[in-house]
Amino acid sequence: MTTFQVPTLAQMTAEGKAPEVLFWVGCAGSFDDRAKKITKAMAKILHHTGISYAVLGTEEGCTGDPAKRAGNEFLFQMQAMMNIQVLNGYEVKHIVTTCPHCFNTLKNEYPELGGNYHVEHHSQFLNRLLKEGRLKIEGGSFKGKKITFHDPCYLGRANDEYEAPRALLEKLDVSLKEMRRCKQNGLCCGAGGSQMFKEAEKGTAEINHVRADEAMETGAEIVVAGCPFCNTMLTDGVKNREKEDQVQVLDLAEMIALAEDL
Amino acid sequence: MTYLPNILFIAALATAIAVFARKAGRIRKNIGLGKDTDRSDRPSDRLQNMLRVAFGQSKMQARPVAGALHFIVYVSFLIINIEVLEIIVDGIFGTHRAFAPFLGKAYAPIISAFEVLAVLTVIAVLIFWWRRNVSKLDRFHKPEMKGWAFTDANNILYIELVLMFAFLNMNALEANFSDAHHSFLISQYIAPLWSGASEWGLHFGERLFWWVHILGIFAFLNYLPYSKHFHIILAFPNTYYANLEAKGRFENNATVTKEVAMMMDPTADPFAAPAADTDAPIERFGAKDANDLSWANLLNAYTCTECGRCTSECPANLTGKKLSPRKIMMDTRDRIEEIGVNIAANGSFVDDGRSLLGDYITNEELWACTSCNACVQACPVDIDPLNIIMKLRNFATMEESSAPGALNAMMTNVENNGAPWPFNQMDRANWINE
Ligand code: SF4
Ligand code: SF4
Q: Given CA atoms B21, B24, B28, B30 in this order, what sign does their dihedral have?
């Protein structure tokens, strides 16, 4: 249980207040047990910085990303229109999210449907707070720890953001070992394009096992991800190789929350 | 009689250009079978992208060895074209080395530089041949590379070798003429090989190689439209008309937007008569066949070099799935060619009971894609296989309801409870208090 109040936009609006930023939690972040930990870590960081934020709570709905990637443009646009009505109703201007899929959809696919917001992935958002001096990170607990970073497709190639997560990790004083395939050439975890919700087609290997192997080849003790789906896929990959005792899979937000002892 | 060579040359030149123009016109028409899409915005960004990616080959360099070798062949192609221009002038007017008097002292160094490029090209081509045929690089031996695709790739290398061989030997023979005026950097070392020939033999040989060289170029020009090598032309328009938006932004379907707006509009009358323009053909959602795609998709298909960089980065293909983004492009091209032939034979398209999705691309391939954009990133000429995959999925899901069962279940969840899993919408904020 979070030890502090997580304000909803409805509450804040009722009190006549408007938050600086809306924290878009996403479906994984709301329902998936592993991803909920990422959500809580992010909420802790937001609370810690003292920034005024809110969540939509039960007024949030799936962005429609998995429907669109599964070819269902109708369902996608229905979801988009419902969310845009809510967001525009509250006059939301600025959104931060821990899910690159939500980030991509809100940022790139909502404007044409009437939803125009300044959308940031949490790596970008936190990095900006750092630069503005509104977030301070002491690297102590991770100093020199060998880690590697897995670029989420929907943050990296889809939106050309490779530096923000690395800049955050640098602040943590970790020793970052890049995988052979990284940044523009990063290998997908296997979850995108709605693959998360179905069995893979017949093949010779599972994508997430291959990617987990690549991550572990770096000798990293922590594999850092920036996406709840990548996180699940890589965790499964590590488990499949029976390395879960040696190798942890953590989100950027969790790394920061741990470093700050939040 | 003395004008016979000129006449023959002009006839050959005119034929080569006419035949090429006819075939190129057909391809243009085939590309025009695609649906409209607007790529007229941001002209200066487009120009820059073309200069960087096509002219500057920026994306080729992601693989340094192949990138460097390709660059040599490409530069020599561009530069040797100047020499071809001279050959054409000579051929039409019956002159010999028409540019020499104009260039004066610079002529020999320029032709020498071309010779150096020719030698480098020969070396690069031999290495390319080795990579394809001996060291058997994986990406050149996928299932879609059997048959014509494989032969085609080698044919180009052979043509290239013949052209360079003829060019160098033409110069070498001339160096042996009793009244030789020119000696060039590389061919002077080949010249001794021909020194035993009679004066007549030298002149005959020089003419022979001259004709082989130029007729070879005409043949090459006309081979292009049947080959992946057409990219040397189409790479330019293709990069100009490339998608410049963020790769994660998938197209919005405007027809759907209208329908959704109606559905969500409380004032809309659900029983209202349908709009009057019933003559308008009913639009299919997404793409089933190649002509449901956009012209940009089809231009992509004709531009594909079949290099397989996309496929070698594709996570699905890397893990043994049937999906290969290169095959998506080759299938699209083969199908639109088939449709083009059908139209040419029948005046307009006559249903042949075939379609891109089903007869060329299977559901198994279609649903293996993770939409990761690795193929788009890898393509040296800015081709977007993912865009085609998504349009096919649009058709499969919205028109045929043939998405995999698990995805249908996921979509039912999204529809009913606003999440891809069967959780209650009202539990969305439970994490706060857990
Ligand atoms: S987007 Fe699809 S086809 Fe392209 S590389 Fe990724 S999985 Fe393969
Ligand atoms: S789509 Fe691009 S990367 Fe793929 S084979 Fe064709 S040219 Fe090569």
A: positive
Rounded Cα–Cα distance for residues A207 and A116 (Å): 35
- Mean of pLDDT values over A10-17: 96
d(CA A75, CA A81): 10
Q: Is A177 left (phi over 0), alpha (psi -120 to 50) or beta?
A: beta
For residue B261, pLDDT over 90 is answered with no
* CA-A153 nearest atom, ligand 1: 6
For residue B390, how far is its CA from the centre of ligand 1 (angstroms)?
Answer: 11
Q: Using CA atoms, how far apart are residues B236 and B242, in angstroms rounded to an integer?
A: 10
- B291/B335 Cα distance (integer angstroms): 9
Q: Which residue has its alpha carbon closest to ligand 1 atom 8?
A: B314
Kindly give, in sequence order, each residue whose CB lies less than 8 Å from that of residue A73, ignoring residues fewer than 6 positions away: B253, B256, B285, B286, B394, B398
pLDDT tens for each residue of A111-120: 999 999 999 9
3-state secondary structure at position A63: coil
Res B262: pLDDT: 84
Contact A31 B421 (CB under 8 A): yes
Q: Is B394 in the pocket of ligand 2 (CB under 6 A)?
A: no
Tokens of B260: 């959704």
Whole-angstrom distance, CA of residue A38 vs CA of residue A231: 10
Asked if residue B297 has its Cβ within 6 Å of ligand 2, the reply is no
Cβ–Cβ contact B424 with A under 8 A:
no
Q: Do domains A9-130 and A137-259 have the same CATH topology?
A: yes
Chain B nearest-CA distance from A41, in A, is: 11
As a CATH number, domain A137-259 is: 3.40.50
Region A9-130: CATH code:
3.40.50
Question: Distance of alpha carbon B11 from its chain centroid, rounded?
Answer: 30
Q: Which residues of B touch A202 (CB under 8 A)?
A: 320-322, 364
Length of chain A: 262
Centroid of chain to Cα A119 = 13
- Gap between the Cα atoms of A223 and B311, Å rounded: 26
Quick check: A227 contacting B, CB < 8 Å? no
Query: ipTM of the assembly?
Result: 0.95
The four Cα atoms A205, A211, A215, A221 give a dihedral, to 10 degrees, of -80
CA distance linking residue B354 with residue B352, whole number of Å: 5
Q: Decide: B340 and B30 in contact? Cβ < 8 Å.
A: yes
With a cut of 80, say whether residue B271 has pLDDT above it. no
Return the axis-axis angle of helices B254-264 and A73-89, rounded to nearest 10°.
Answer: 60
**pTM confidence score:** 0.94
The full set of domain ranges for chain A reads 9-130, 137-259
Q: Do B398 and A72 touch (CB under 8 A)?
A: yes
Query: Measured between alpha carbons, how far is A119 from A122 in angstroms, rounded to an integer?
Result: 10
Question: Pocket around ligand 1: residues whose beta carbon is below 6 Å from it?
Answer: B 313-316, 323, 325, 369-375, 385-386
For A101, which residue in chain B has the nearest alpha carbon?
B248
**Cα B78 from chain centroid?**
18
B181-189 own/partner pairs: CB under 8 Å, 24+ apart: B181/B100, B182/B97, B182/B100, B182/B107, B182/B108, B182/B111, B183/B108, B184/B108, B184/B111, B184/B112, B184/B115, B185/B112, B185/B113, B185/B115, B185/B116, B186/B112, B186/B115, B186/B116, B186/B118, B186/B119, B187/B115
